[in-house]
Amino acid sequence: MLTTLLIFSFNDTAYAADKAAVAAAFSQSSAMTDPIILSLQHFEQIQSYQVTVRSRSPQDEPKIIRYSYRKPGYVRMDFTTPHSGAVLIYNPVSGKVKLWPFGLGTFPVLNLSPTDSLIQDGNGHRVDQSDLGVLLNNIRRLQHGGTTATIGDEIVAGKSTLHLSVAGPEGKTVDAVHQYEIWLDKQSGFPIKVASYAPDGKLLETVFMDAMVINIHFPSAFFAP
Prior knowledge:
The protein is α+β, with helices and mostly antiparallel strands. It is built from 3 helices and 12 strands; from the N terminus they run βααββββββαβββββ.
């Protein structure tokens, strides 16, 4: 099993209280409330987050990205691997993406559509459909008519998690995914590890999310340099 150091830091007082409520909810029977619904409800209450995303897939090379998100959909990706130093920013107001291949403030600057194949990975992921809310809603869509199994409590790199398996009904996929394995952190309520599978059972991607900061205050020009 792939492992990585998962360190969550929370710097917002209101969120810290809310986090305690989430932890209490996850400690109760998951039969009372679907943990994915709890996670979605929690996402709706936050305004921003920043997290290090580490992903591996058979179709693409490993990635390490510092991912920043602010509602209603601003996204910034600072790449470590591959393309070290590259920066990509999506603006939901303009619907456009700016890409600095060799670092912020350097030439050239590319203005692209989020549907441009240049900025989609081997799994076809788009920057405007990359946040936790989209992931959780995709999982919910597979749950409709599908099956959700609670595998149980597991420790992932020192963190207490709830492991779930969600598979869509036969032949159904969402964003090319038929089944998800999800590990929800019991303290934050958010996924810290997600594995996705094709209808034939082939592993599409494994993603770890670590060093998360919730309700982070970004500088005014962070998403519009």
